[in-house]
Amino acid sequence: MVAPAQTSFNAGELSPLLKGRPTLDKYRNGCETLENFIPQIQGPARKRPGTRFVAEVKDSADATRLIPFEYSTTQAYVLEFGDLYIRFYLDGGVVESSPGVPYEIVSPYTSAQLAALEYAQSADVIYITHPAHPPYKLARTSALSWTITAVTFNWPPFNDENVGTTTLTASAVTGNITLTASASLFVSADVGSYFKISEVSASKYNQWTTGVSYSSGDIVYYLGNIYQSGTTAAAGSRPPIHTSGAESDGAVTWTFLHDGAGYAQVTAYTSATLVNATVIKRLPATALTGSTRWSEGAWSARRGYPHAVTFYEDRLWFAGSSSKPQTLWASVSGDYENHKYGTNDDDALNYTINTQDMNTIEWLAPTKVLAIGTANGEFTLGATQISDPVTPTNVKITPQTTFGSATDVKPLRVGSVILFLQRAGRKLREYAYQFDTDSFVAPNMNVLADHITESGVLELAYQQEPSQIVWAPRTDGVLTGMTYGRTEDVVGWHRHTIGGGIVESAVTVPHWDGDQDVLWLIVRRTIDGSTVRYVEYVEKYMTDEYAFFVDCGLTYDGSPVTAISGLDHLEGEEVAVLVDGAVHPNRTVSAGAINLQLAGSVVNVGLPYTATIKTMPIDIATNAGTSFIDEKRAHKIVMQLYQTGPGLWYGPTVAEMDEYAVRSSQDAMDNPVPLFTGFTEALPWPSGSERGPQLMIQHRLPLPCTVVALIPELNQ
Questions:
Q1: Is residue 241 situated within a structural domain?
Q2: Which residues contact 711 (CB under 8 A, 6 or more apart)?
Q3: Average pLDDT over the chain, rounded to whole?
Q4: Range of the structural domain that residue 209 is part of
Q5: Element of type H or E holding 188
Q6: Average pLDDT over residues 126-152
């Protein structure tokens, strides 16, 4: 007789292709099935807590998406983006404008556009991009005061200056004007776009000089800026260097006109040679007579809008428009809405990745360098000297790997690495710097579990506490997770069925108590014959009467009662019930309520779920190497458990399972069964001889369960 113990489950659920690889190091720590259990980095498998119902989305007929808004670890919102609206969640509940009325604002994004949203946050502002919209910013001033507006750039990004002979003539230098082109230039999609017109030469004006007498209305230049006198007097000793308004040089008041260029925004299209526009920055006088020195705005309905956005080195970066899919635009340092190019270190910049294929930049992620993911490869952007900050004159783009990135899946930064989804949307890769090669590598995190995300991944979310988990809802609605301990060499995948629902979105934010991260979900369900979409979050792991191991559930906490109401969201469903820590028989919700056999003070009610572990085929190490092909018979099993409640079943198949009786004769019958910690006795195992016996356990009641080890007794 031998007893090959499985004392760790942190390799997670393994690919079926590995069932013939018992010599693989991770084999003995893995499972064929790991469902609704979370492998811990230390080794045990812990049953996941249930999900708490928060609210139904505004319109369950439309797809919705969650986006996190984390101002601090104690002020973290979850935003519900739906069809042309945004709602807000804080401290586990809905933000309400009045009792029972959710606070919401109008959004420019339709339900069909939500998947393509990218975002980057700075304090109380989130910048949002979408290929069909100009960049927007969502700003918070209080829990009931949010605004979303198109970004009004102090200076927007522009394309290269015209090199042809077409002139652009303005009817005036300020106000509402017309722009006339000498040849066909405009299209109707130019409405909303910008056109910049530059001075032919600033040197056509006299340079400001101290002591020189000026009359009111005189125009001068200084350091490339153009100023107009408002005073008749000899110039003072302080040269004009301001870039807005009027200031005195000590004697003459100088009004800033422009810096050699101005721009206007198109408001209406008339013809290919004529549009109406509004001047945003005063145009130079040469615009009145026609100028070939003009530039078109880089972003517009005609040219497309950026797809990716992030912050890096105190600049706001955009990238990947339809007309310039491999171009990056970075703001002035510390001035996120100013894209005025120049050669000074803090000036705005743009850069285009030079590759053979034109593939859209899918994501940007800040590390020590700026990581860039395109449809066909991964790059880094930094300074030519790695220790220097990026400036307009020292940008360096370095190709790194060639896996390509999935569209519309925002990567995760975890410590010093980036986790991103490969182009087909099925493989998670770890983008990390490798010192020995002085380059970045991107190993496949699904190499041992290629099956688990085969259907494709919708998005990624990272939970730091209490366990390090990358959450990845699949396109088929199954929630997958990857327990991820990089320094511990732990990568363990697991699957979760959320009370039979379809998970459509997942984000994490810090818990309002600040002690852990909370996974929030949008779950699509069929309730009482209707399709609904619910906002839910995964509860804390608890082992007392508040232990929450039901999905889409609620808790009653108060004076003892025999009826629980407020369950309209589960109408017609069979629900599991925990009353003061004791399992109650299941009930069916009718008229939004259930009745209890006995009164209870703390009652958890929600959809039941089962947690399952099925090991890989058991192998026994021998002097010859393996007994993999030998017949074996498992006749007993010992389980090492930690704080586990009743409801644990074991056997070779679901049809052949026996229940382990956690309750002993010494336990009081009128109290909840104490949670069990320790080794079970040797339990009989109902199976015959086979080459690869497998152990299977299930936990079926709404109570905690942690499996530390499974020890079968085998005969060969």
A1: yes
A2: 3, 4, 5, 6, 637, 638, 639, 640
A3: 93
A4: 168-296
A5: none
A6: 97
- d(C-alpha 411, C-alpha 422), whole Å: 10
Residue 124 corresponds to which tokens in the numbers above? 């109380």
Instruction: Enumerate helices (H) and strands (E) in the chain, giving the number of each.
Output: 0, 61
Is residue 590 one of the residues assigned to a domain?
A: no
Q: What is the pTM of this model?
A: 0.91
Q: Which residue has the tokens 């042309």?
A: 84
Query: Do the beta carbons of residue 76 and residue 70 sit within 8 Å?
Result: yes
Greater confidence, 255 or 633? 255
H or E segment and range at residue 69: strand 65-72
Distance CA 456, CA 478 (A): 10
Residue 3 has pLDDT above 80, yes or no: no
Is the residue at 605 inside a domain? no
Are 647 and 612 in contact by the 8 Å Cβ rule? The answer is no
In the predicted structure, residue 239 carries a pLDDT above the cut 70: yes
Domain end, chosen from 262, 279, 296, is at: 296
Q: What is the three-class DSSP state of 268?
A: strand
CATH code, 667:
2.60.120
- Residue type for 155, please? W
Go through the chain and tell me how many residues it has.
716
Q: Within 13 Å and on the Cβ side, how many CA atoms surround 301?
A: 10
> What is the tens place of the pLDDT at every residue in 293-327?
999 999 999 999 999 999 999 999 999 999 999 99
Whether residue 620 is contained in a domain is answered as: yes
Say if residues 177 and 264 touch (Cβ distance below 8 Å).
Answer: yes
pLDDT tens profile 653-669: 999 999 998 766 565 55
Number of domains in the chain: 2
Tokens standing for 475? 């396109």
Report the C-alpha gap between 705 and 709 in whole angstroms.
12
Query: Domain ends where: 276, 296, 316?
Result: 296
